[in-house]
Amino acid sequence: MWASEVLSNLLIHYNAIMRLSSLKLGITTQQSLNLIAIPYDGIPMSLLAKKMGLDASTLTRNINNLEKLQFVKRIRDQQDKRVQKILLTSRGSHVVKQLDIKLEKINQYLLNSMDIDDHEKSINAIESLSWHLKCFREQ
C-alpha cells in the first residue's frame, strides 16, 4: 500500500470517528474540528483560519454558528483592536473535554491493539508526520 493510500485511509477512518463522536454531542464534524482547534487561551481569527485551512468568510460563518450555540465568544485584542480573538466559553470547553474523552478512548484502543514496543514508535511517527505536514503547508 502506498503512503498516500495509507494516509487517506487513516483520514477517512478518523473523520468517520470524529463524525460519530460529534453527532453524539449534537454538533457537526466541522463544529467539533473548529472547537478543538481553539486553544484554551484563545486564538486570533486570522490564525484560526490559517490553521483550519479556511477562508475568512467561511470561518466567520462557522464562528457565528458556534457563538449562537454559546460555545465561543469573540474579544478584541488588547494590543491591536482590529484583531478579534476567539475564546471557548465554559460550554465550549465542556464540549471539547467530551470530545477529548471520546478520542482518548479511541487512542487507548489503538495503543492497546499494538505491541508495547510499537507505542512510542507510532506516536513519534505520527508527531513527525504532523510536523512535516505543517511545514509543507507553510511553504
Notes on the protein architecture:
The chain is mainly alpha-helical and 139 residues long. The chain has helices at 3-24, 29-37, 45-52, 56-68, 90-112, 116-137, and strands spanning 43-44, 72-76, 84-88. It has a three-stranded antiparallel beta sheet with strand order 1-3-2. Strand 2 and strand 3 (84-88) form a beta hairpin. Helix 1 packs across helix 2.
Features:
mainly alpha; 70% helix; 9% strand; 3-stranded antiparallel beta sheet
TL;DR?
The protein has 139 residues and is mainly α. It has helices at residues 3-24, 29-37, 45-52, 56-68, 90-112, 116-137, and strands spanning 43-44, 72-76, 84-88. It is 70% helix and 9% strand.
| Euclidean distance between termini CA atoms | 27 Å
Instruction: State the helical fraction.
Output: 55-70%
Q: Into which percentage range does the β-strand content fall?
A: 5-15%
Strand order of the largest sheet: 1-3-2
Q: How would a crystallographer describe the biggest sheet?
A: 3 strands, antiparallel
| Shape annotation | globular
Gyration radius, in Å: 17 Å
Q: Unreliable stretches, pLDDT < 50, 5 or more residues?
A: none
Quaternary structure type:
single chain
Give the topology string: H per helix, E per strand: HHEHHEEHH
- Overall pLDDT level: 90
**Secondary structure category:** mainly alpha
Number of helices: 6
Q: What is the number of beta strands?
A: 3
